[in-house]
Design goal:
With 251 residues, the chain is mostly helical. The chain has helices at 22-53, 63-95, 101-106, 120-135, 140-148, 155-160, 185-190, 193-205, 211-225, 238-249; strands at 4-8, 14-18, 108-112, 162-166. Helix 2 (63-95) crosses helix 4. The longest helix has 33 residues, at 63-95. It is globular, with a radius of gyration of 23 Å.
């Protein structure tokens, strides 16, 4: 059975998010871990090959130098392992708006309570706790917590105040005039993260709103967005503008 959660916006209009289930989350982790393992073995084989072609220096090195070199290599290797197996989740979720390659493939993403975009601190908290969850029976405790939680939260989600939701496809902008517009990365730079998240949330959830609520919410969001856009966007209606931005400039 799918679980949903209602999130109220500042305009007192509620968006309904469909929570990601345990199956899709597990398969997303499986994809991510497959990528990590492939990268790990590629790096290891690369280092082995590199060491085999470099001239030997063991005979010339002192015992003290050997120990220092070994400590440096061990420290670097430990840091590299952390970055590959935990930093991977932190950086992708932070920079890809709550998505890793696995989550993107499954159409799910992480958001903060209230539907706000994931920030760096929340990404760190939920993924540092991932280490503990992995150690406790390969996510067995995390799976059990997710099944018991009304909001499908694992331990990391509970600590970070996050939820994992499904992304919904939104309709393409229907205005004929929008065909003349193209993706403009400069537009993305003009909108702050909160505005980007609000525009995307509107486009994803607009179909669950009645016509009056949709028009009111679109007008409210567009009023804060239009001053930052070039004149070429002026002919679009509020609804078409937001959908076009979510599908192109913010895609």
């Amino acid at each position: 059975m799918e679980r949903t959660i209602d999130v109220a916006t500042g305009e007192s209009v509620a968006f309904e998010y469909e929570l990601a289930g345990l199956g899709s989350r597990f398969f997303a982790v499986f994809i991510d871990m497959t990528i990590q393992i492939i990268v790990f073995f590629a790096v290891v084989f690369g280092l082995v090959w590199l060491s085999s072609i470099l001239p030997g220096s063991a005979a010339r090195a002192t015992a003290g130098a050997d120990k220092v070199a070994a400590a440096i290599v061990e420290g670097f290797f430990s840091f590299a392992l952390f970055m590959l197996f935990d930093g991977y989740f932190i950086l992708f979720e932070w920079l890809w708006e709550g998505r890793t390659p696995g989550k993107r493939a499954l159409g799910i993403r992480v958001v903060r309570d209230g539907g706000f975009p994931l920030d760096f601190t929340s990404a760190v908290i939920r993924n540092v706790i991932r280490i503990l969850e992995f150690a406790l029976g390969f996510y067995a405790v995390a799976a059990f917590a997710t099944l018991l939680s009304p909001q499908n939260r694992r331990l990391g989600d509970m600590a970070a105040g996050t939820i994992v939701v499904r992304d919904l496809r939104y309709e393409r902008a229907r205005s004929l005039g929008s065909r003349d517009l193209v993706r403009d990365d400069a537009v993305v730079r003009e909108l702050d993260p909160a505005q980007r998240s609000l525009v995307r949330s509107y486009a994803e959830r607009r179909l669950v709103l009645d016509a009056k609520a949709r028009a009111s919410l679109a007008a409210s969001i567009a009023s804060g967005v239009r001053p930052k856009l070039p004149a070429s966007y002026a002919h679009l209606s509020d609804d078409d503008l937001l959908v076009f931005l979510a599908e192109n400039a913010l895609a």
